[in-house]
Design brief:
With about 350 residues, the protein is an alpha/beta fold. The chain is built from 10 helices and 13 strands. The protein is about 30% helix and about 20% strand. A hairpin with a 2-residue loop joins strand 2 and strand 3. The structure holds guanosine-5'-triphosphate (GTP), magnesium ion (MG) and zinc ion.
């Protein structure tokens, strides 16, 4: 496997990473991560890897440790390797960690294109698509929407769904497919480009792993039918994994997400809502929050019907969530700082 096929690109060149053969260090990409064990892919193939102690001890949060998609500098030995350093990330797909306060969870790094997968039979939900869009637009990544299981709905219903997305997100590419009928898959094969990194995002049971198996032409990932009683996905995939497609392109599979959550920058959220961001800078006040300010161009557009009420409501809801997350995060940091101050003072007294 050459580094270019693994995604080594202009960006990595731009950060001036030049492998020096004399040091024995080489470049590799993180393929899986499990607690403290990693699998990385280098030019010589797959290697089990551990991180060097220094990296572990200087890490102040999970984000400082390797994640799937990372480019790392490794020192190979026998059939394994030691990860020395994580190269700067081009993009970080992250969301609020489930059940924790103000903490983030990395989904994958160095992703160029994120594929939002929804099953059109009962998973379709445009507000959730918008959550994914905000997460994707907050980092250096492009979104594409994959509508799967089109074999289960009528042509008319599919058209209605596609139209409802286009109305709210006119510039995002939408690809309808069916894994079981092999519908749209031929076109998808040409969609993936060599050296470009793609990541599948979506709820459990929407068919992410089935799609990967179809693209690989082999049963690589385990898939499972939806549970009969609840019709909920069963979380078949439990680990993120990066793989290289036979026709080129790097694809990361993910376990289905129960909640997407909202975080990221205000700009990311705004640009996710294209029809709203079109009014950016046209409100009377430059720091307008579009809630109730006089001369707000967004509110006017909602009243005129140029921006749908549903879009506006979802945008506002996500803004509130994002602000709440930021407050919790700031509070958590402050508490952490105060705690370490107390510890320091106690040490001094002793
Ligand atoms: N009818 C129909 N069923 C599909 C299609 N694609 C996948 N399925 C079925 O949907 C079920 C779930 O598919 P998976 O690929 O395991 O879903 P997943 O998104 O990987 O789920 P997690 O790993 O839990 O996140 C399986 O029974 C698949 O056979 C499709 O296009 N049409
Ligand atoms: Mg899966
Ligand atoms: Zn405004």
């Amino acid at each position: 496997m050459n580094l270019k096929a693994l995604g080594y690109n202009v960006y990595l060149k731009s950060i001036h990473y030049i492998p020096n053969p004399d040091t024995g260090y080489t470049l590799a990409r993180v393929v899986t991560e499990h607690k403290d064990r990693y699998t990385v892919m280098s030019e010589t193939g797959l290697l089990d890897a551990e991180i060097i102690g220094k990296l572990r001890f200087t890490a102040t949060s999970r984000a400082d440790l390797p994640a799937v998609g990372d480019w790392v500098e490794i020192l190979p030995y026998d059939n394994a390797a030691i990860i020395q350093r994580i190269l700067p990330r081009k993009s970080v797909l992250e969301r609020p960690a489930v059940g924790s306060h103000g903490e983030k969870q990395i989904i994958a790094t160095n992703v160029d294109v994120a594929l939002i997968v929804q099953a059109v039979d009962r998973d379709f939900n445009i507000n959730r698509i918008e959550r994914y869009l905000a997460l994707i637009r907050s980092t250096n990544t492009d979104p594409v929407i994959l509508l799967n299981k089109i074999d289960l709905v009528s042509k008319e219903d599919l058209e209605t769904m596609v139209k409802s997305i286009i109305d709210r997100h006119p510039s995002v590419q939408i690809i309808p497919i069916s894994n079981t009928e092999q519908d749209g898959l031929a076109g998808l094969v040409g969609f993936f480009k060599e050296g470009v990194t793609y990541c599948l995002l979506g709820s459990s049971g929407v068919g992410k792993s089935t799609l990967i198996n179809n693209l690989l032409g082999a049963t690589r990932m385990q898939t499972k039918s939806l549970s009969e009683t609840t019709h909920k996905g069963q979380h078949t995939t439990t680990h993120r994994e990066l793989m290289v497609l036979p026709g080129g392109g790097i694809l990361i599979d993910n376990p289905g997400m129960r909640e997407v959550g909202t975080l990221g920058s205000e700009e990311g959220l705004e640009s996710a809502f294209e029809t709203i961001s079109a009014y950016e800078g046209t409100c009377k006040f430059s720091d307008c929050s579009h809630i109730n300010e006089p001369g707000c161009a967004v509110i006017r557009a909602v009243e005129n019907g140029e921006v749908s009420r549903e879009t506006y409501a979802n945008y506002m809801k996500m803004q509130r969530e994002r602000q709440h997350f930021e407050m919790t995060e700031a509070e958590r940091r402050k508490q952490g700082k105060e705690f370490s101050k107390i510890v320091k003072q106690m040490k001094k007294k002793r």
